[in-house]
Amino acid sequence: MESETLIESAINILNTSDPFEKARLGDSVAVRWLEGAIAEPYDPSVDFPVPDRPARLTNVKLVSPSLMPKLGRAGSLQSRQAIVHSLVHTESWAIDLSWDIIARFGKQEKMPRDFFTDFVRVAQDEGRHFTLLAARLEEIGSRYGALPAHDGLWDSAAATSQDLLARLAIEHCVHEARGLDVLPTTISRFRNGGDHETADLLERVVYPEEITHCAAGVKWFKYLCARSKHPEFTNDSKESDDSEEEIINKFHSVVREHFRGPLKPPFNAQARKTAGFGPQWYEPLAVKESNA
């Protein structure tokens, strides 16, 4: 029997409904890929169907984002449970999004091996975040599925399912970066509420790793833009100042096409800078575009 490719493994994960099993399976696949036990990203001669929507359990009540109850400011146990539950749900989707970008776009866009490795690492991180936060949620007296949630993250993934450039921009450079903006405040609120265990988990594990996830989006957005102009472009090629400006303009265009409304300040400029993009990328998008 021929060994399974990475894309086959990714599709198996996407078709796994239990998020805890999804995280465990994802970690196993990541280890095997990073150690070389899974040798090939895909078989050029075989196409596997990527599910339109990943398999999910039905134990989480889904509501429209506009109908979500307020999470509060972590001052009460109920509020802390609600915030952690929201984070667990977000991470459950982040697992799917990471494997989906591999399965949906890796072969289709003929991406280099580093692309697969970067998003395997992201997927592995997201699975670990989910598992740790779900365990923490139980420690503070709740469980995943006890509260309502929304699927806004997947809605934007579905809307960018035909366009890798848009997927990278919206999921990784808008949504993930928004997480970087709000996490420091969330951490402070847990500390102020006396929940140092959750604050430490977010500050020491989730926050620094989420910066690298945003960085992966920026890196591969730049790569695709450069490759579209210079097919011989590699990650080792040096961009010119002109190409950087063109890439930023392209980013603005893609975000305005695929994201409703302006971006919300305040921005975490330091974390965003660490992830590889400065204020010229996002500050112009915080202003509502004139129709004049």
Automatic annotation (TrEMBL):
SUPFAM superfamilies: Ferritin-like
InterPro entries: DUF455, Ferritin-like_SF, UCP012318
PANTHER family (UniProt xref): 3-OXOACYL-[ACYL-CARRIER-PROTEIN] SYNTHASE-LIKE PROTEIN (PTHR42782:SF2), SI:CH73-314G15.3 (PTHR42782)
Protein name: Uncharacterized protein
The organism of origin for this protein: Thlaspi arvense (Field penny-cress)
